Amino acid sequence: MSTDEQEILASLLKSFSFKKKAFLLEQGEICRANYFVVRGCLRLYFIDIKGVEQTTQFAIENWWITDLTSFLFQKPSEFYIQAAENTEVIAIEQHHYDEMFDKLPKMERYFRLILQKNHQASQRRIMFLYSFTAEERYRHFNGLFPDLCNAFRNICWRLI
Prior knowledge:
Blueprint: H1 3-12, E1 13-18, E2 23-25, E3 33-39, E4 42-47, E5 53-59, E6 64-65, H2 68-73, E7 80-83, E8 87-93, H3 94-103, H4 105-131, H5 134-144, H6 146-159
Antiparallel strand pairs: 1-8, 2-7, 3-6, 3-8, 4-5, 4-7
């Protein structure tokens, strides 16, 4: 990106810090931003009919997270986004999203590529949910993200 494009982008973004367990989004609210994790970890989850939290996505450093349906269509969310640890994010708010694409066409391509990767990951996750046992899913996830799994193990050991 050129210096001018970087300045335009910077003018559309906001930085936030969240303490561990803070909510960026709660069920019933409208998701107003797409979050890029600079430091820390966020999780997207819902509460199932048995009252159990079901995490559908983690966002670690350099990943994006949002409730895309709520964000794009400004509908109440069925999900929560919560900080799994102290987290710093950069956010693009919904009212700046189209403006960003109009002013910075490169960003539209960037987000399209991210959404394609996200869609592929979602399809694979659905396949794994139907095809693998919980232990097999954990081993697969641990193989892909060993640092994340180690961090969660350390957090759990501190809680015991």
